[in-house]
Each structure stands twice: as C-alpha cells, then as structure tokens.
C-alpha cells in the first residue's frame, strides 16, 4: 500500500481540484453563461476545421446537421452517431459511401460508459471478442468477425503493432471496419481493422480535467488542454495517470500517458501536424484459469493464478508528422511519417495444467476434455501447475505514406481517385527467460492448490535461465489506387487495387528455425456497388481480399516459413438507412469470409501445411443515434456461423475459437434537464476456447448503468459496471487446451469533470 501512496494522493488531489475551485468561486460559477458541455457539438461530423473541405474532396455529401436543442439551459451533449469515417477510404469518407460494415465508437459513448481502456470501448461492437495474454503475445488481443486482429490495430491510419494495453485518454473515436481490407491497409485484416482516431488540436479553446474514484481501490485522473496559438495554429495536450485494482484478486494497473499535438496552417492550403504518444504501463497479465473436464476450472471470479511479483512493464513512444497540401479544390496531397517504439519487460506466470496428487510427492495431470471412466474431482482435490512467460520485447516501426486525392469528371461521370504509396520497416526482438522449479520441466515452477487464495510472491527453489533470442525485420513496399465513380445521383461504383511486397527475415538462437526468410508479393482487390435511391438510403454489394504471410508477426513456428500466405476473401451485401431526419443510423449486412491456405498441423509433430480452410458466414444489424432529441442509443446484433472446413489436425468441422454464434450489445441514455440516466447490456452466447472445441465457455449477459449531472462548468457521473454481479468468462486464450479469464464483478466509478 505504501508503494501506491504518492500516486494515489496526487490523483485524489486532482480529483478534488474541480470541486474546490467550484466552491471557492460560487459567484463566478453562477454567473457563467450556459455554454456547450464537454465536447458538445451541433453537428454529427468531427469537430475539426478541415473536415468539411476533406469531405468535399471525397465527393461525400456533408453530414446532416442537428438543430440546436436547449435542455434546461444546457446545450445538447455529444452525439453517439458519426456520419464520416477515415477507416473506409484512408481519408474522411461518408459512411454511406463505404461498401462495408463500419462501426464508429465515439468518445461520447466511451465517456458515458466510463470506458477508459481500449478493450472496454470495443465491447460496443458485437463483431469483437477479447483474447487474453497468449504466449509471446500480450497487450490487447482482439478477434474481429472470428479472426485474430492483434496486428490489425491502427493509430491514425498507421499500423499500431505494439503489444501493449491501450487507453482511451487521447481518442476522439475508435473505428471498426469489418471484412478483409488489404487493399486499404496491406497484409492482415482478415476480419477487418480497428483504427484509433486521436484528438487533434483545433481553434476552439478547451481546458478540462477529470478524476475518478472507484470501488476496490481505483483512482484515475486525466486532462485535455487545447490552446489556439494564432488564427491558424493550435496546441493540444492530453494526459492521464491511474492506479487501478479490480475485483480480480491481486490484479492491478499503474499507468500514465501524455499525448501532445501541434497543428499549423489550420484553414490554409498547407497544414502541418506534429503529434506524439508517450505511455508507460505497469500492469499484471491475466492468464485466467485452465480447462478441466470440458469447462474452465470452476473457481471464483476473484481467483488469480500467478504470483504477486508478476508484472508487465510497457513503454510506448509514437511520433508522427503529417503535411497536407491542397493544390486546388480538386487536388490534395498528404504525406505522413510515423515512428513507433514499444519496449516490454514481462515477468508473468500462468496456469498450465490441472492435476491431482499421486501420493508419491508428485502430481498426475488430468485431461482438459471429459474422459469416460475417469472420476470427477472436487476443487479441493485439484492442483494447478504454474508456467513462466518471461521475456523482454522491443518492437519498432518506421513508415511513410503518401496519398493523392483527385476529383474529376469524364463527361457526366464523377470520380474521386485516391492513389498512394507506402514504405516501411518493422523490427522485432524477443529475449525469452525461463523460471524452473526443482524437479520440474524447463519453464514450469511447480504446483499450487487450485482453491487456495493464499497467494505467493515466489515458489521455492526456482532458478532462472536465459532462453531463445528471436530477432526479425520486415520491409514493406506498397502502391495502391481506389476510384469511387459516381455514375449518377443514385449509383456509385468503388474499385481498387493494391500491390504489396513484404520481405521478412528472422533468426532464433535456440528455437527452430535458426534462420528464415520470406518474400511475398500480393495484389489485393476491392470492389463495390452502391445504390442510393435517396439521401436516407444506401444499399451495397462488396467484394474484398486480404493476405496473411506466415512471418507476418516476425515470429514463426518451424516449418511454416516456406508456406505461401493465407488468403482471404469476403462477400458482403448490406444497407444503411438514416431515420428521424438523419438522427438515427440503421445498418444491416449479410457476409461470408473464407480463408484459404490456412496453416494446419500435419500428423508429424512440428510440421505444417497450407491445406487448411476456414469459413465464417454471418449477419448483423446495428443502430446508432437519437430516437428523440433527449434519447440516444447505440447497439448491434451479430450472428456468426463459423467452421473449420478443412484441416489435418483433427479440428475439421469444428467451430472457430472465441467465436460466439450470437452477440448483442446495447447502450442507451436519456437526458432529463441537467440529468442523464442510462444503461446497457452485453450478451454473448457460448464459445469455445480453442479450435479443438474441448473447452466450452458458457454464454452470459452483463448489465451496466449510469447517472450523471451536467453543468456548463462541470459534470458528475456515476457508473455501475456489472450491476447484478454476474460471474462470467471474458477473454479466452487458445493455448494449454483453452484458458479463460473471468470478467470483473460489480464495480462503481464516480467521475468528476471540470472545465475552466
């Protein structure tokens, strides 16, 4: 507790500052004229000065503007709905002109839900399921439409490939584009991509501080300061610090971050943006619990399997420079460079197997699958074997991207042409370490009682040895072009091509292969047809492809380096409607994603072929916006029918890991004068922890609620998470037969925000 005291006291002081200032200056607070509340806008478009010009360059219809509504002297609050996204066209594009499913999670939704982590914010998309810590992969592990998307996370259009736990403190929105999208983003993107949109400096002054106190010893503080420097320049800086404990025993996060942005030339033909993200995390990885008898080990949601000395230290630095030059009303050139570096120092312990004492001082492991003739044991009779996952990882990337946007006409037909090039290099280094207990195999520490809550700092007689050093580099060269053709006011055709050259090399000091190299040349395609009978309706059909090289993550299992890339294709048909004077957006889609050349293990251990095939068929519907001036909603339903169509490893015919058949999300708030009340739920049906389908994780429904009081100068919000204290399993991990991490129990968060 003494170790947390300085940070805790500092955050509590910051939390108290808004209220101290408010009560110290009551006359000033009372005389203040009602102004728009935090981030309030009268339009659903992003609040940047250049957005209208960019939208026009895309040929996109401007987003509908909501009439200003006064509610007891307070202006209308932030909108959940956004009409423009950058993720579907590499530049701001009207969502109705993107022939794929797009979900935009606005900061208004995140603030209303108290969602400060990237993972919590993504719960608003029914296409997303969460993975836990996984072998050499830590940080945010995401499945999108049933496919792993850990390397398909982007920050302002650049791949954010680092293995760290992301925060929302500097995010304006999170954009989820569903379906293979290599034409836009290059390798990966089997299920789609997730783009983080950072907050940008602008000409509207803003000074805001927030503080949160929560049950189970949670403290968080953040600030958002935007200062115009002149009529054409502005500086903005966001920051946060937190000391978070949850209902999971032992788990804690102590993190901080800062993100400055300088924007020059606002409103002029040439605009320059310089930005940075610096973040430090000291967290504990949650490997959950192992499987037993076909299900996760039936323990309390507070139970933690690991050591109290575990920690994952992550240092993130990302620097970006962007130049945008508008040659004329029809031509715009953008060049952007980003350098990112991620350093991770992890000492982590996970449950590996379940067993019983054999009476000779040792233990006998039990199968994770139900086995006929084998008795069931009570939790008090079971023991859990612990395994170490220690490593130091350094990831870095340097990328440059140039985009040219040209609008022109050929007779009555209008074109919006985007052409560009991307050059970049990724580097990766992973030094592994193993902690081994006496009499245990390398990397295994020993056995502890499965039901014990007497947590250990260390196990006795454990030695540490240096393991494999993996090093890898990859170079990317890509050229692409996409044309949106407006045949007439009702019909549009989208078509694009991208050529990628991905060349990777890696080496291992202990593991096999000792050295591997791979060069992949691939041409991705994208095409779509859009029919828009009115401004409120849009119907589309699209086809897209993507590819996944076996050295994509710069790590490899032996005998996969020579395999051709897995290839993916998607067919999608859908509709997008705007109801209630464009205040409510309804989206529907039917789709099929097929992965060919999927890597599958042969009968010989350690050898793989590209004979696998995986297919997902699905449907979804979503709604975002206002039903009435005071009533906002965001929700969606996803149906996924997944199947391993072909495999050599015994999984043929099985359901894909962490892919529920049904997912439903809903969040709704209602404004009553200065008060706001609301809540929502997340439903997920049964899932399997791995493609082997041995560990079955039951479905669940979790309910959350909020109540807030708004004033022009300040907001006070109470969030209640997991209202009914539901026990459920959240993040799933395929390894060790399938592991599952329990979700949090009932948690209350009180947040105060002050604007000055």
Textual characterization of the structure:
There is one protein chain. The protein has 756 residues and is mostly beta strands. The protein has one domain (2-755): TonB-dependent receptor, beta-barrel domain (Maltoporin, Chain A). The chain is built from six helices and 44 strands. The strands form nine sheets. It has a 22-stranded antiparallel barrel. A five-stranded mixed beta sheet has the order 5-11-12-9-10. Strand 13 (206-214) and strand 14 form a beta hairpin. The longest helix has 20 residues, at 5-24. It starts with a helix and ends with a strand.
Q: How would a textbook summarize the main sheet?
A: 22 strands, antiparallel, barrel
Overall CATH architecture: Beta Barrel
CATH topology: Maltoporin, Chain A
Which geometry do the CA atoms define? globular
Number of strands: 44
Helix content bin: under 10%
Q: Helix/strand-derived class?
A: mainly beta
Mean pLDDT: 87
Q: What is the CA–CA distance across the termini?
A: 34 Å
Per CATH, the superfamily is TonB-dependent receptor, beta-barrel domain
